[in-house]
Amino acid sequence: MFSLFKKEKFKIVSPLDGQLILLKDVPDSVFSQKLMGDGFAIIPQSQVVVSPISGVAESVFPTGHAVGIKTKDGIECIVHIGLDTVELDGEGFTSLISQGDYVKAGEPIVQFDNQFIKDKGYNLTTMVVFPSGYEKDFNLGEREVKKGEVLF
């Protein structure tokens, strides 16, 4: 009965199946120079993005290409699907959550049409960055990861 009130332990999970790469290797200076915060990136092999952390969806972009999540302890996380994909104006993306929703780590948040976006000429590398509240080293190396796999 008291497990109902147990505090959830903070964790960061992989938002996608794919190839984990270092943020510095992302072909976009905003991310590679960590201007939005430190983090990691994944070259996706799946089309459903899950939340990397548990928290409130503070910003769900109408274009579906990005979601901002904040924990109750103030850790902010942004999941940005692809490079310059905002230019698609929502085509190929379906948000599975709304702003203000509470999401758990591993819960689906966005679905995207991998082939459609690639056919339009966009790079689907997906960045997970932490603008504030989490100051640990993100040197995860490069390897295959599975959606929902605990990284931290």
Description:
With 152 residues, this protein is mainly beta. The chain contains two helices and eleven strands, in the order βαββββββββαββ. The strands form two sheets. It has an eight-stranded antiparallel sheet, with no helix packed on it. A three-stranded antiparallel sheet has the order 3-9-7, with no helix packed on it. The radius of gyration is 15 Å and the shape is globular. The two termini are 28 Å apart. 34% of the residues are buried. The mean pLDDT is 92.
Biggest sheet features: 8 strands, antiparallel
Distance between the termini: 28 Å
Query: Based on DSSP secondary structure assignment, what is the total number of beta strands?
Result: 11
Unreliable runs, pLDDT <50, ≥5 residues? none
Short key terms for the protein model shown above:
11 strands; single chain; three-stranded antiparallel beta sheet; mainly beta
Question: Which helices and strands, and how do they pair?
Answer:
Blueprint: E1 18-22, H1 29-32, E2 38-44, E3 48-50, E4 55-60, E5 66-70, E6 76-81, E7 93-95, E8 102-103, E9 108-112, H2 114-119, E10 126-132, E11 143-145
Antiparallel strand pairs: 1-2, 1-11, 2-10, 3-9, 4-5, 4-8, 5-6, 6-10, 7-9
